[in-house]
Amino acid sequence: MNRRCCRSTSSARATSAVTRTPTRPSAPTRAAALEKGEAHIAGFGAVPYNDVKKLEKLPNIQIETKGYEMLSPVVELMFNTRKAPFDNVKVRQAISYAIDRKFVIDNIWFGFGKPTNGPISSNFAASGLYSADVTNYNVPDGVERANRLLDEAGFPRKADGIRFEITHDITPYGEEWRRFGEYTQQALARIGIKASLRYEDVATWLKRIYTDYDYDVSSNHLFNLADPVLGVHRAFHSRFIRPGTVFVNGVRWSDPRADELMDRATIEPDPKKRAELYAEIQKIVVAAAPLAWTHEISFATVLDKRYRDVIVSPLGLFSSFDSAWRE
Known about the structure:
The protein is 33% helix and 17% strand. The protein is α+β, with helices and mostly antiparallel strands.
């Protein structure tokens, strides 16, 4: 993204913004453009996080993680819960335990994240809608628990050490997601699940996941948006099992009690009662593990330091830039 948003005077307000979109340059090209001052702003993972860490050390660059609160993205592994073996809750729980969230954050997202176990971002803690009182899959003995659950589920290791084979559809969002898919393959191997990786273009992947349901495991990030009614219910309310509609309940899990609680929370005006409803919703959903929530992404915006007041609200780069100015 190239923001030529200010006059050449020493302290001028923004008058225009130019965005590079016709052809998407490679990740190294985007990073180089920012380093040279040819581009001024990049966000939403436009620059790989390993490059963000490098750019952060430059005197002309600053990194800002604020401005994504309206989105509050949570990374998740998606299980096709109506297809064996993922119709077995113990299999889903086992994989949830097998993921080393700290490793993922430190080595794939280079520290730009926070571990989580559930679908609602901790950004909602202030309103009381986030609850940490759920099944904790982020434990030191996660692999041991995972192996035990798979044994209990009726999937013992065979002579070659493999319990069963699956295909993991890598999310086609860029380098971090490809590495996350490769890490998931390795994590599953440690508990006896052999995963083959499949990487397709975005349109083909979306159709496979949300129309054909022709997958075993995939991944995505869930934007919580301004309220769980808008951003979270769509991930597992039965009303959102809608073939052909993307970014809804692609795992096709449903629970009558969870549906009832979400419906009540949608119209409940009392903040305390609403918080109680969401606390129960999170307990039910996290225990059932239709998805494995791994971490909250801290998107990084790379900024040329000459540009000020660019990120001034939870809307971040979705804002109008009417307050932006250049030194």
